[in-house]
Amino acid sequence: MHRWRPELGLIQETLLITLYARALDARRPSPILGDTLSADLAGNIDYDFGKLKVKPNLVVTTALRARKLDDAVRAYVAAHPGCVVLDLGCGLDTRMSRCDPPPSVDWYDIDFPEVVHLRSACLPGRSHLVGADLTDSDWLTAIPGDRPAMIVAEGLFPFMSGDSFQTMTRALADRFPSGELALNGYTRFAAWAMKYHPTIKALGIEAAQGFDDPREPESWGAGLELVEEQLLTRAPEVAGFPQPLRALTRLTARSTALSRQGARVLRYRF
Ligand SMILES: C[S@@+](CC[C@H](N)C(=O)[O-])C[C@H]1O[C@@H](n2cnc3c(N)ncnc32)[C@H](O)[C@@H]1O
């Protein structure tokens, strides 16, 4: 069987962390996301996933945030069947297969050109692939701007430098008549602490960006309005976390401040 050997830069390589976390979730007896396509894909990639030191906490939180972001995409698509979906920093995520939108939806997977190249080889699908650096907004002209847009950005925010995420958000909000942005949030502390996380340390990346107040993006000048902040420590799926993680997560769930340091999903309308 052919196996793909990824040749990626450090930031691009982070896509293997989330892919592997989803794959490990799919192999659990009671998975949270159950993304067997990710498990098959990870099995076809020639890479030492062991060096990423992906721990159970990362497996379940990655699976859970993906599930919540999928729910947001499905709900938007159900309400706007003629929309476009943009998965920013898509990596090798199989979100489109999981969400299975109707043919009326145009789905765009966007990431660096080398990622999109790898993706087109090992994960054929019906999405439009756009190879671009998201810090530059030229790529947006390739996307029809006359339809509502569901924009999802999973695991992207801390890896975009300076205020490039904010600038990109303004360009996106300008481009579409209306839409929703769904992302997983990182507090400033979580983003700072990330560089000490064994997985990120293993790759030698300095991820740095975060924000604490879920309303902060409302001041980015993109016309964003907070719809929802979901603190995932309080999600019912925590019942399926392995022990002692489940007990620890339930304890954390009692505090909003502590829960914000963990996985959270934020949704904004514009
Ligand atoms: C942690 S991975 C997450 C991948 C995917 N969203 C997932 O959940 O599996 C971060 C992704 O963001 C992409 N990325 C980071 N900065 C980017 C930029 N400036 N332009 C395009 N893609 C970027 C990386 O290449 C990588 O695929």
UniProtKB/TrEMBL annotation:
InterPro entries: Ppm1/Ppm2/Tcmp, SAM-dependent_MTases_sf, TcmP-like. GO terms for biological process: methylation. Transmembrane segments: none annotated. Keywords: Methyltransferase, Transferase. Pfam families: LCM (PF04072). The keyword Aminoacyl-tRNA synthetase does not apply. SUPFAM superfamilies: S-adenosyl-L-methionine-dependent methyltransferases. One of its GO terms (molecular function) is methyltransferase activity. Signal peptide: none annotated. PANTHER family: S-ADENOSYL-L-METHIONINE-DEPENDENT METHYLTRANSFERASE YKTD-RELATED, S-ADENOSYL-L-METHIONINE-DEPENDENT METHYLTRANSFERASES SUPERFAMILY PROTEIN. This is O-Methyltransferase involved in polyketide biosynthesis. It comes from Nonomuraea pusilla.
